[in-house]
Specification:
Length: 80
């Protein structure tokens, strides 16, 4: 003879995800802030590079002008 089923036991469970949701929102905010900071840094680096390029171009032009003046002065000194 078999055993008779005399009832059921139900165990209700629920996972409280409120802490997880709060933590994920916090991480998302931090990642977004880091991305914004990196973007600002990249823009600043680009601006710095452009300014340094401008300074270098000006320096080369100035050096060429000085060299031209020195060569002209040397030639003028030889002609007299």
């Amino acid at each position: 003879m078999g055993m008779a089923n005399d009832g059921e036991i139900k165990i209700g469970t629920k996972i409280d995800e409120s802490g997880l949701d709060k933590g994920l929102k916090s991480v998302k905010g931090k990642v977004n802030n880091a991305a914004k900071d990196m973007n600002k840094g990249a823009k600043a680096a680009s601006s710095f590079t452009q300014k340094m390029g401008g300074i270098a171009t000006s320096g080369v032009a100035a050096a060429a002008g000085i060299a031209g003046a020195v060569v002209a002065a040397a030639r003028a000194g030889r002609c007299h």
